[in-house]
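Researcher: Before we compare anything, I want clean individual predictions. No alignment, no superposition, just each chain on its own. First chain goes here; please echo the sequence and then give the structure tokens.
Model: Echoing the first chain and its structure:
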Amino acid sequence: MTQDEAKRLVARRAVEFVENGMVVGLGTGTTATLFIRELAARKLDIRCVASSDASHELAKSLGMRVETLVELPELDVYIDGADEVARANWGGPGARLDLIKGGGGALLREKIVASAAREFICVVDSTKVVEHLGKFPLPVEVIKMALPLVEPRLAALGLNPKLRRAKGPLHGQAPAKTAGAGSAKAGAVAYPEAKAVVYSEAEAKVLGAEARALAFPEAKGVAYPEATAMAVAAKGDERPYLTDEGNYILDCACGRIEDPEVLAAEIRSIVGVVEHGLFLGMATLALVAGDNGVTELRP
């Protein structure tokens, strides 16, 4: 069984845990995307809250009722993937499922939505189940202003942080279109979902920009001249990845994590850290797809 086949298999199994009348949290990432598509195909009478803009838009496009935590602060179940799953204290007191999440860049919203759910079902293929967390880089979401402070603090903990980068100037996405030669803004790049992000000259240097600072007004379909600080992004250069909340992510190649609880506390104590990708004891069930079908792991 290929990894893609395993992801589709576990996504289909996860749909069986959803019933009419439920309020469902939708995860983010490749497996969560498959789950959303499978769930939409069942045409259930449910209401949903998504953990990212991408999942929100996908679910809406498939005809699902998607709202926010303002309308639905309590969820019956949250279903999402993970980058790693480990069983902590298995068979003893305090047994739990520990996860690393955030490879898709939505760790903050994922943790928020998961915390609002009575059950958190983690859906993975068997390659994601590990004895100890840490082989997959641990994501840490950071306020942009605090990057020069947080990065050395994480390095001092031996976590080897590296700023995540992605193609394109906004969320790693390519521009929607380019104005034609006859346009009043010829050479300008139009972004369909522009957000209110303002880059100072110092930030422009961090972003690798060579021109003046750029302000994104809160609007849609606004064109931005190529002579701005983000011009090189239109040429396909990599820029720092921005989360849906406009923050940076530092991926930490920390290796085997001996004590996830201690590490989580150390990271959270750093001013400027928004959230980390350690989801400790939050999952109530892990569905794991492999050659022998889908198995269940419970704390």
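Researcher: Okay. Second chain, same rules.
Model: Second chain and its structure:
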Amino acid sequence: MDLWTDPQIPELGPHVQRAHGRLAAALGRFMMGIRGWRVEGTLPDIPRMVLIVAPHTSNWDFLTGTWVKLAMRMGARFVGKHTLFRGPLGVLMRWLGGVPVDRSNAAGFVEEAARVLRESERMTLVLAPEGTRKFTDKWKSGFYRIAVAAGVPIVLAGFDYPRRVVVFGPVMEPTGDYERDLPRIQSHFNAGMALRPENYFEPGGPESAPPDPPLRSPE
């Protein structure tokens, strides 16, 4: 096993929200390299987007995503359980771009998130549609409703654990028909990518929306 893997960090375009300095970026690259992770693809050069990540089956997903965020100097915002934003951990979570949400009282979150995204000059909002690391057979629709209400595209990102690759995939323009668009979005992910495949549900899409190729950049 190699002691170091080149993370192959892509350059962000001039319109993408940025954050973090060189030291944080070096830390992210170092952690990716010693863990054997690399990046395929890149973010589209657009100022506002909803970035969804899947499969989400382990706490390692957050750590891996954090390393990528730091290494790429992405100014992305993400949503986290409000209990994680207490004490010193809360300071770190906010520095990383976290936004606390109380899931037991989340009324109005979609509307508020869409408003902030719509009114921001640059903003990348990161969401995990599964909403949990545990097995679930239904994605939460908040990511889609936020994108539609804010008038922004949905960008796909996948954790491919067997290859140790974070893949930035295609840009999806939501049509407003969630039931039709969802199978096409989900078809880019599969249980074989996950750290814990037993926690990921692979739904079948209707005949009217044939599956797209799995989320993978050309070798």
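Researcher: What stands out in the second chain?
Model: Residues 28-199 form one domain. Additionally, Residues 205-211 have pLDDT under 50 and may be disordered.
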